[in-house]
Design brief:
Chain lengths: ~400, ~220
Amino acid sequence: MKNLIFIFRSAIDDFSRNKLRTFLTSLGILIGVFAVVVLIALGLGLKKYISDQFEAMGKNSLFLVPGRVLSGGSFTGGVSSIAGRFDDRDLQTLKKINNVIGVAPLAFKSTKIKGLLKEDFGDIMFSSETFSDIMGLEVDRGRFFDKSDVSKKAKVVVVGSKIAEDYYGSDEGAIGKKITIDDVKFTIIGVTKSKGGGGMGGFDYDSYLFAPYTTGFIFNPDKKFFRLSVKVENENYVSQVKEDIKKEFLKRHKDEEFSIVEPTELMSAITSIFSVLNLILVAIAAISLLVGGIGIMNIMYVTVSDRIKEIGIRRAIGARKSDILSQFLAEAVLLSSIGGILGLGFAYLSVLAVHNLFPAYIDLTSVVLALGISSAIGISFGVFPARKAANLEPVEAIRYE
Amino acid sequence: MIKLVNVSKEYIIDSEYTFYALKKASLEIKEKEFVSIMGPSGSGKSTLMHIVGLLDKPTTGKVYVDNKEISRISDDDLSKLRNEFVGFVFQQFNLINKLTVLENVMLPSIYCRKELDFDPNDRAESILNDFGLSEKRNSYPNKLSGGQQQRVAITRALMMKPKLILADEPTGNLDSKTGHEIMMLLEKLNKEEKITVVLVTHEKDIAAYAKRIINIKDGEII
């Protein structure tokens, strides 16, 4: 133990005498660990971002979209509506399937919206009362439209928090007010809780308006929907319901005219693509760790040659081969660990810096991995120079000038 | 205490020429002796000392330490003997310049695996004090004079309470006054501490401190 403390202390002494050399030698490992940890953190962040987007939908939902959705492909297939769209009959078919407790059709309208403070183009989603449930939408103030609103074709609308803010200045200011959508007056009955998000795989719900799909037929006279969402009683029935829907729909549609998507399926497909991509990036970054290791090996060889006499002296006064070996190994491990710790530190700072924009994070595994790999590099690249030092003949080493 | 029987050290230069640094040398050094090995440079006296000091192994012949043949013992056991049994003093002092005087003196205790019957720090300080080096204990060796450095080296050699001190031209890098001071110190250690001293030198007046002189020439003891 005293030996080990001594070894590390003298290694640190040595480094403080050669600060620049120490820093430059660890730089390779620093950059390698930094790159690997940051890329893993970004990968984790991406995964979290995607799963957050999907999580709100719940595990007991199914989506029907027109056309083929390639496995792991784009989720926007419905929006383009190249293939045909679903109609009211499809909606009624779904309602009759066992264990389906709710169906939310979806139609879009992009049109002029006029509020108290602003007049601009906006997007309205027309759906059923189940929509808020399936999409995990929460209402902050007021209420979401209900079954009777749908059956009465009520001209009510629920607005996203951003819309309330932009058109009425605040949530409170929007409730109960009239809003004009394409020259039709609606009453605002609720404001949704801000969800953030938007972009990949999801909508920025904060900037949408939501109204009953029956009311939406004003703007959608042919009563078509580009997406049908289904809520199943519980997640165990999901695959059965999926089969039943398929069977029923094949009576009216061709196989390639519609797709039934499970959010979890889609999510795992997207996640796995990004995971592979991330893994490739991490592997490329890991090459720099290898280069860093070679740098350490090089410097350790130089150090051994510089200190042949010292090695001879130590051997003469009783150091064993293993003492010399551990001394040089300790220096190599310390060098690479310094790089590893600094790299981890810089990675942490970088992740902290982007945290507001992107949910990247460093997990315990990457910390353990970074420190483990950097000391492993120290050992594996330090062992050759250290063995060279240990195997020097004492008498030749001490005569060395 | 140490016995060499027909010890040779050969260096094969090429297929036709082999250099004999030592040729069938036999000698015995008894406990508490003060012996000088004397010879001109290149005579093989340093090789002889390295073999006596267990730093080097002979090509042929046998070396006994306390009646135990050591040619077959492991490198670790040799290191242990060098650590506990022998203390070296070299011509170039061979202190480690990046360690302080005190650290240099204590270095052998770091490499000792057995339980010590003394506190290394106390012992180092007390010997340094005896040698008038107390104030220099936190200095670095290259800031000291040659005589001071050699006294530090002797302190280091004494650290592990060795039975044998091997001094290889200990006065070679010192002026004659300092050289004699160092010799008087070694003589004192032999007389008062009963430590066996083996001295290698080419200077007659230095060799004369010893009670017995072994002459060596061209690798042979004469």
